[in-house]
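Technical note accompanying the year-one report. For the benefit of new consortium partners, we illustrate the data format agreed upon in the data management plan: each record pairs a sequence with a structure-token string. No post-processing was applied to the example shown here.
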Amino acid sequence: MRRALTLGLILAAVAATVGAQQMETPYRDPEGAEEAARRALRTFALLVNEGNYEELGFESPSEPRSATLGEPYGEFMVRLDRLVEYQPGGDASELLNATGRLTYPVLVGERTRSSLTVTMREGSWTSESFGAPSYSRRFTEVRDRLGRERPSSEYFEVRVPALNVSFVGELGESGLLLTPVFDDPRFGFESGGTQPADRALSSMVAAAREHNGLPT
């Protein structure tokens, strides 16, 4: 229940930025998301074996049996076609599209080992993917460092898939803020370096306009 309530706070906070109507459909029923994630964690433990435990982020095949769920984060995407049209100084939050996916870090003790993702599909939550240990560790590391100033539950994921860029998003007093998950010299991004969303997205507009539209 505590995590369901926390998730509700995440969604309410993001709704204040990107619009309550946009949030309502993909992220309703946080308690259902929690239950789906618990089922997925049990499935994950069954999938890990001697041949794949390192690839999936664990230190032994038995670790998943003691794993727990960390604080989830909702995912928002910036589409290439919207970024191409973005005008610096505009409302960057209007570019965020809720994907309906929630990712839960998979913890052993207090350490992030891996992750699992659930998605809202046809009105209910279901498991979608497992793994991505390197990314989930880095994302939670950046988020938790930011969370020293405010609860980690107030952060969310913002991805620009076409340019292979990911941010930790948050709502600051001055509006939407983005913190790059990884260094990216193409855009002058430094991992952990928080900046206004307008500045971050504006720095990617030229690359978006030159992009061939294919996944990176």
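Partners are asked to follow this layout when depositing records. The CA atoms of residues 25 and 100 lie 8 Å apart.
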